[in-house]
């Protein structure tokens, strides 16, 4: 019952984080034609930092958050910087729904990285689901066709680095609270953005660049009062989204939470239709459906394989006489 409650809280936290981050997508896409991405995120992080301290106080913390694992916090912050910067670059070039559909590949990425990095053994059925899922992604982005957009590559990079960030979050949750991770994530994000900003400014706008590249190298300008308020508001959105994302993967099992990442598609489709009158083409829906089914099957099969391994371990212990049943 306790595990079930934690999973429900984790799922609720993730859905809330997705809804919060969708507001950020709207604002960034709306302002993206006037300001470069690093300028927006620097102004955003100026407000996000104090907001994370507020969440830290809500958790009962005093002073500034501290961590016993600063290297992991830096790595997590770096992955989030890469994930959201490439995400924003893709956001400048693609409709919201198409971006959400491509992000369906995150469970597939987790499985692939588990094989490559953790040497996890994956059954034939999961390999087939993996291949089918990536075929779905190819249907969405259509490489080599006239409709191919380089923004799709940035979204795929965003998904890959996001998966790394989630894996690091799972390791940190044993020692650091959600608010602590949000604080250090925002701090690392701001430091990296401020280090890169002078380099990007020195390079300046690139003629005839794609919308994604132009978003990174666009000339800096002083925001209007309204845009400045929106950028500051993004700080609250970012802090809230980071807090609830960290809380989701800290409270619940990744296998229980990850399927609800797919709530981003209906939410993004709704905003895209209401604000920009964009509706995904048939290829996006077909690719999204294929990727969704294969991703959910991969999660299901992974959980099934884990339970099978646990059962085999218990059977072996019983056979060898080392399994002990404790009477409550």
What features would you describe in this structure?
Helix 1 runs antiparallel to helix 10 (225-251), helix 4 (96-102) packs antiparallel against helix 12 and helix 4 runs parallel beside helix 13. With 328 residues, the chain is mostly helical. Helices cover 76% and strands 0% of the residues. The chain has one domain.
Q: What is the N-to-C order of secondary-structure elements (H for helix, E for strand)?
A: HHHHHHHHHHHHH
Uncertain parts: 310-328
Helix content: over 70%
Distance between the termini: 17 Å
C-alpha geometry: globular
Biggest sheet descriptor: none
Helix/strand class: mainly alpha
Number of helices: 13
What does the secondary structure layout of this molecule look like, with pairings?
Layout: H1 2-31, H2 37-58, H3 70-91, H4 96-102, H5 106-118, H6 124-141, H7 151-172, H8 178-203, H9 211-217, H10 225-251, H11 254-257, H12 264-276, H13 282-320
Helix pairs in contact: 1-10, 1-12, 2-8, 2-10, 3-7, 3-8, 3-9, 4-12, 4-13, 5-7, 5-13, 6-13, 8-10
Short structural description:
This protein is mainly alpha-helical and 328 residues long. It has one domain. 76% of the residues lie in helices and 0% in strands.
Structure keywords:
328 residues, mainly alpha, disordered C terminus
């Amino acid at each position: 019952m306790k595990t079930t409650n934690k999973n429900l809280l984790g799922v609720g936290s993730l859905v809330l984080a997705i809804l919060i981050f969708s507001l950020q997508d709207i604002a960034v896409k709306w302002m993206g034609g006037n300001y470069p991405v690093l300028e927006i995120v620097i102004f955003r992080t100026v407000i996000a930092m104090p907001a994370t301290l507020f969440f830290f106080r809500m958790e009962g913390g005093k002073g500034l958050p501290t961590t016993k694992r600063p290297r992991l916090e830096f790595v997590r912050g770096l992955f989030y910087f890469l994930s959201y910067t490439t995400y924003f670059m893709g956001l400048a070039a693609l409709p919201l729904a198409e971006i959400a559909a491509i992000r369906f590949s995150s469970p597939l990425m987790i499985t692939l990285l588990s094989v490559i990095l953790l040497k996890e053994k994956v059954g034939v059925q999961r390999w087939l689901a993996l291949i089918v899922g990536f075929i779905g992604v190819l249907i969405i982005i259509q490489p080599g066709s006239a409709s191919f957009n380089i923004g799709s590559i940035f979204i795929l990079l965003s998904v890959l680095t996001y998966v790394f960030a989630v894996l690091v979050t799972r390791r940190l949750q044993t020692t650091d609270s959600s608010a602590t991770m949000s604080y250090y994530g925002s701090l690392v994000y701001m430091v990296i953005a401020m280090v890169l900003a002078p380099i990007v400014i020195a390079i300046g706008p690139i003629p005839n660049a794609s919308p994604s590249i132009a978003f990174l190298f666009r000339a800096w300008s002083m925001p209007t009062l309204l845009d400045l308020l929106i950028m500051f508001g993004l700080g609250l959105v970012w802090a809230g989204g980071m807090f609830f994302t960290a809380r989701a993967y800290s409270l619940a099992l990744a296998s229980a939470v990850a399927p609800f990442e797919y709530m981003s598609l209906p939410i993004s489709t709704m905003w895209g239709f209401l604000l920009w009158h964009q509706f995904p083409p048939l290829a996006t829906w077909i690719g999204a459906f294929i990727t969704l089914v294969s991703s959910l099957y991969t999660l299901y099969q992974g959980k099934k394989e884990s339970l099978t391994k646990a059962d085999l371990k218990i059977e072996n212990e019983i056979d060898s006489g080392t399994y002990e049943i404790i009477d409550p």
